[in-house]
Amino acid sequence: MATSLRRSSRILAVSMAAKLVASATKPIRRSTHITSPSADTCARSEDLEDVIDAYAEDYAPKKAKSPRKANTAKEPKVKKSKVVVYNLDEFPARGSSPWKIGPHVSAAGGVENAVLNAASIGATAFALFVKSQRKWTSSPLTAESIATFKSRMLEFGYDAKHVLPHGNYLVNLGNPDDEKREKSYECFLDDLKRLLKIPILLSSCSPGSTVGQVTPEVSLSLIAQCLNRAHKETKNIITVIESMAGAGNVLGSKFSELAKIIQEVEDKARVGVCLDTCHMFVAGYDIRTREGWENTMEEFEREIGIKYLRGMHLNDSKAALGSHKDRHENIGAGCLGLNTFLYILNDSRTKNLPLIMETPAHDVGKSNGRTGEGYEVWRIEIAVLKRLASLSETPDEIQKLDDWADEVRDAIQSKGGVVEATNEAAAKESRQPKKSKMNAAAAAK
Ligand SMILES: [Zn+2]
């Protein structure tokens, strides 16, 4: 599996590079490497790691061989400018909606490539890893990567507040073992210091786990202590803790647990929450109906406070309500259905936040390498989500949701992905009763 992923990913990376390089204003130096976006970051992260490693090893910028290598050892090195000017007209229009949407894209080959990957599919927000998410140590960001990331953010018109990087998966700030927690803390702090260099001021991470050795209260306090320490050792970064599915000893599936961490954080301006729709649903928050969404947000306001909402992860769920199984599905193709995302994207509380998809890309690692369409499913999902953000909730308009969900399913299937029949049935079933409720809500307006 990993071998075939690597092989096809390499081909895909070359193909995408060729496609985007061809779209840029000439002349172009091949100093940057466009890489394919990552797959879902939570559900298939091990496969994704293989893909990312393969890119990083094989497509990191390499120094060109000098034809006079043998005689040039003592010549002074002249650092050539690697500025590439892109023709922005060749990239999809992004629109000006206040709801900022995009996937967790790959930063393979350099963090600067995340900006291109996002722009290539019309994303208005994006997430990335600023180092390998499954290694304790990574080489530092290069000065060139930092400079190019900054210039591309300006060039492509992205606002840093719509970028929500994700922290390292190995980190557990709630680990009661002092030595292991310290190792986690150092890795966590390193992520924050990298972000300050680009500079991005939001950093999302999983809260942590008790590892079955202490009570949740003890672990939650340890997490808060780590955040306090990190806030003192860095400036301005806002640490954003993610709501979790709640499998095993993992903390943060209940709003009350996230609230407990925030209560113990000294600098309240430096902490926030990222709500993951898949995690919320499998943790027991039924957000499939407007009533359910409103009740959940009221509970969030009561327990935590809406001012702490700093971002969201928009994922559908393969798993059922309350199952605590963290299995992401494409938008509208899972147990939530498109209605959930309609409520979120018609809610002023989610305006101007990074709304990040961590959904399966399907054709990453599966493409035959000739099409260069490793972004297709995400491109469709972004388009559908943007439409939801501008949809008025009238009965006529809401009729469109079934067609749009089919559009996402067709994209998945066209890339060899499978939409599980049970999910489809569950999603359709969940849409039916909601239509009548929404009609009533629309009529009452
Ligand atoms: Zn998430």
UniProtKB/TrEMBL annotation:
One GO cellular component term noted in the UniProt record for this chain: nucleus
Name used for this protein in its record: Apurinic-apyrimidinic endonuclease 1
Required cofactor(s): Zn(2+)
Family statement drawn from the similarity comment of this UniProt entry: Belongs to the AP endonuclease 2 family.
GO biological process per UniProt: base-excision repair
HAMAP family: Nfo (MF_00152)
Stretches the record annotates as Disordered: 415-445
UniProt keyword annotation of Transcription regulation present: no
Membrane recorded as keyword: no
